[in-house]
Amino acid sequence: MFDKIILCTASNKLIAGLWRLGKLQSHQVFQDNEQGLADFSLFLTNHSNIKLYFLVDAVEEDYRLQTLPHTSGGARREVVERKLNQIYRGTTYRAAHFINREKDKRKDDRFLFVALNSSDFIQGWINIIEEQQAPLTGVYLLPMISQSLVRRMKLMAPHILLSERLSSGLRQSYLHNGRLRISRLAPIPPAAQSQLGQFYVTETEKARLYLISQRFIGSDTLLSMVLPSLDESNKSICRDLEKEDGIECSSLDLAKFAQGLRLQPQLLQETPELLHMQLLAMGNVPDNLAPAYLIKHHQLNFIRQLINGATAAILLGGLVLAGIYLKQSFDDSAFTEQAKIATSEQNRLYSDVAKNFPTTTIPSNDLKLAVELRQAIADYAKTPKRMMQILSKALVAQPEIKINRMHWVLTNDVDPKDDDKTQSAIPLPKQAVNASNSPDFIPDPKILYEVAFINGEIQNFNGNYRAALESVNHFIDRLKADGSVVRITILQAPVNVSSYSTLDGSTTDERASQQSTALFKIRVRLKPEVSPV
Question: Are residues 312 and 288 in the same domain?
Fold first, then answer.
């Protein structure tokens, strides 16, 4: 039920705190002896599969500021690892903390290399963690948390010496522009308990001289001392420091700061390390010093949690889909039932109406076929309107032509015949004469064409057959001028132009001239009419 376990070694003891949702639930202290190790083993057994964070606060630490050529990705890891092996060969717990890039032309990378020179004092705790296969996230130096502490306190001075009184002694950390450069732990002897002010002055002077010797600061650099405290006791120490060393000193209200972190200030009276542990539990995780083989169980646990999470997500998705499909099946069942009821009602209504149907011997399939044929005939239904419009347009210009008969058909026959039995006109010999816009036109037997047989005569004919023939030819030309006409065939002409015919009678016979007529007959074929889209 707890999210994190934060461990911290300090002054021959181990502090273990349980955090849930960033808030401390409880903490225990285990002494560095056989009983303490046994109790710690039982503690891990009772809280298995919870992530462990191991903080170290001890004098066995080393800090080195190094500058490396700027690289990135795998090249940076190789350069850093090579430098770590060069500086801390044979050291188990080590790390490289990136600070920033220099502002010169090369813009090299600046790193703070940190390590534990000796790990014997934590090996007992680490052995138990390995035996329990607890998911150890990493091993971290407590001074590295000081960077988060300064940022949260909003301390903006460029040179800060943070002096914290912890269970293991006086921890002094130098930070340049909020970045840790070096830290030292000075155990407080029992004799100095009554003269803490003098002890602080002495240790601060040592720290200042060391910073000057390492060229972190100059002799004239203004160093800002920060003393976090739960009471007013540090104010007198600040006065002593300002008087003896001439440095700027300020005391911070640690109780108010702890309340802002949801940590009870009274807990810091006996265990001041809980402040750093609280910052770590809130996500301020520094660089890990532990090698890969120590954190493998954490990585496996992380993979196991991912698998469990994915399994839970899949299971939840399956349940959701099952619920959707179940609801859909209920809806389909209800719809099917309604459809059945509606079908039964329609069948009942049909039965009631069918009782009044007249009896017939014609099978239903034949009736259906008749309806379909009737519909097909209706789809192909046409009228001679278009043909009559074309004829009317041509007749307007030639009033001497009279139409006696028009037989209109819709056919796919290549050479349709007329059923006219009258032979009033003189037939052409052998074959008819074609007059067409498309001489090479061949009708398609799959298409229905409009064809009209036109029987006509020349009104007020006076016996001039040549003029009658020209009038008919002009009439045909006007019909051809219409784009809808595809072929005109002259079936009968107003005069027999065959060389085999004989002439009888007298051209001076006035009575015969008045009784003769100029009859003609033509066949007009139209293009198929294109339906508008």
Answer: no
